[in-house]
Amino acid sequence: MKILVCVSKTPDTTAKISFSADATQFNGAGVQFIMNPYDEWYALVRAIDLAKATGGTVTLINVGGADNDQIIRKGLALDANDAVRINLESQSAMNTAFQIAEYAKSRGYDVIFTGKETIDYNGSEIGAMVAEYLDMPFISYASKLDMSGNTATIERDIEGGIEVVEVETPFVISAAKGMAEQRIPNMMGIMKAKSKPLAVVEPQAFTDNSVVTKFDMPPAKSGVKMVSPDDMEELVRLLHEESKVI
After folding, report:
1. Are β-strands 198-201 and 82-87 bridged in parallel, bridged antiparallel, or unpaired?
2. Where are the beta strands (DSSP E) in 69-220?
3. Less packed terminus of the chain by CB within 10 Å, N or C?
4. Which domain holds residue 175?
5. pLDDT classification of 245: cutoffs 50, 70, 90
């Protein structure tokens, strides 16, 4: 089985977020970056286990600059076979998906994995777009995947229950919590990753109709207001005038 796993670089969840002076670009200065957890913990780990069970291979694919190589190498340390980086600082999910699809279309992948979303933009767009470009079935938010020959049985968490679907390869799937368990690279994997192939390819021409016009920070959280237990009138006033129901 030939598997492609899409991985993304995202800011660490504890990073302090800021933007450029004109609020059109993310300011990455001093920010620690990690592999997107949904890509790493669920998509990649399940793909590796699936490849081992079927005698297959796992290729990582990333769209980004040379500073993404360290993130990609971590995926190789987890036991992926090889990797490719499309040398593009993409400004939209559609461009990213197009580049991944263009690379994948002639290479005969049986399964293409993504995480259910990235933890920075939370868009959940890449998987569906890749599937559309490749004219493949797409299963989103999958929490379990079992293979029998070319048939996959997939579970998805839905409102009030679990949906079970079957699909034939090839297909695209986005992995959610439950698909696999987080894994830490061992020393042998880290050493092997240094010599595994990481190809860099140039992007295909793409007319990007989506541009960022502005980023806005969320409103600052207000401080806690203490109300005396004897002053119920003030509590009622605050609940009516200042509380927000989300």
Report:
1. parallel
2. 82-87, 111-115, 138-148, 151-158, 161-168, 171-175, 198-201
3. C
4. 2-218
5. low
How far is Cα 210 from Cα 72, in angstroms, rounded to an integer? Answer: 26
33-52 per-position pLDDT tens digit: 999 999 999 999 999 999 99
193's tokens: 């990753």
Helical segments of 59-156, H only: 69-77, 93-104, 126-134
152 part of a folded domain:
yes
Tell me 207's DSSP state.
-
Overall domain count for the chain:
1
Whether 55 maps to a domain, the answer reads yes
Report the relative pairing of strands 161-168 and 151-158 from DSSP bridges: antiparallel
Residue 231 in any domain: the answer is: no
Look at residues 41, 6, 40, 44 and name the one whose alpha carbon lies nearest to residue 125: 6
pLDDT digits (tens, 9 = 90+) for 70-96: 999 999 999 999 999 999 998 899 999
Residue 206, Cβ density class (10 Å: 0-12 exposed, 13-18 middle, ≥19 buried): middle
Structure tokens at 152: 């996959």
* Phi and psi torsions of 15, nearest 5°: -70, 145
The tokens of 91 are what? 């400004």
Output the domain CATH number for residue 130: 3.40.50.620
Q: Which two tokens stand for residue 10?
A: 């995202």
